[in-house]
UniProtKB/TrEMBL annotation:
PROSITE patterns hit by this protein: UPF0054
Cofactor binding comment, as recorded: Binds 1 zinc ion.
Gene that specifies this protein: ybeY
Primary localization class, coarse: cytoplasm
Function statement: Single strand-specific metallo-endoribonuclease involved in late-stage 70S ribosome quality control and in maturation of the 3' terminus of the 16S rRNA.
Cofactor(s) named in the record: Zn(2+)
Residues annotated for Zn(2+) binding in this entry: 138, 142, 148
Alphabetized UniProt keyword annotations: Cytoplasm, Endonuclease, Hydrolase, Metal-binding, Nuclease, Ribosome biogenesis, rRNA processing, Zinc
SUPFAM superfamilies: Metalloproteases ('zincins'), catalytic domain (SSF55486)
Native organism: Aphanizomenon flos-aquae FACHB-1249
Compartments where found: Cytoplasm
Name of the protein described by the UniProt record: Endoribonuclease YbeY
InterPro entries, sorted: MetalPrtase_cat_dom_sf_prd, YbeY, YbeY_CS
Similarity field: Belongs to the endoribonuclease YbeY family.
Length: 176
């Protein structure tokens, strides 16, 4: 199955280069890198994807202030968080068979707070790029219906995130 990912990388900042994140030696996470990562992740998650000719995902890198506003508005939690995911597959949008066969399937929005990601990267003692990949993979799983209401489902989701990061060459382990 051939997957095409159209990624809309939005950010709250004036200049994308000001939020370019380093992987290793000054290699920024560019939109092309994000697209490649999502492509690889969707290949791993193919069994969880509805059939479509291609997929669209919106990724927004933002601040604690903006994510707190969204968290308050949509989850009634007036505090910043690291990642929010708004799955479009949960909405009952009318779509004809013709539309489904010809148009990309919009999976939803992933919003990541750069401020919180930076703090968490320091706490976990890994790079900001690793933390952004971790949070974005978590958001993607939510878009595909994964959730973690209990400890067991959280552990399954975290293990799947490890698999997704390994696929793109980031090695991370879960500490007990």
């Amino acid at each position: 199955m051939s997957l095409q990912v159209e990624l809309y990388l939005e950010n709250y900042f004036d200049d994308f280069s000001s939020i370019a994140v380093n992987i290793g030696d000054n290699y920024p996470i560019l939109p092309e890198t994000w697209e490649n990562w999502f492509q690889q992740w969707l290949e791993v998650l193919e069994d969880y994807l509805p059939t479509a000719p291609s997929y669209e995902i919106s990724l927004r890198l933002t601040t604690d202030t903006e994510i707190q506003t969204l968290n308050s508005q949509y989850r009634q939690q007036d505090k910043p968080t690291d990642v929010l995911a708004f799955a479009s597959l949960e909405a009952d949008l009318p779509q004809s068979q013709e539309m489904l066969a010809s148009m990309p399937l919009y999976l939803g929005d992933i919003i990541v707070s750069m401020d919180t990601a930076q703090r968490q990267a320091q706490q976990q003692e890994h790079s900001l790029s690793t933390e952004l990949a971790w949070l974005t993979a978590h958001g993607l799983l939510h878009l595909l219906g994964w959730d973690h209401p209990q400890e067991e489902s959280l552990l399954q989701m975290l293990n799947q995130q490890v698999v997704l990061l390994k696929k793109i060459g980031i090695i991370i382990s879960l500490e007990s």
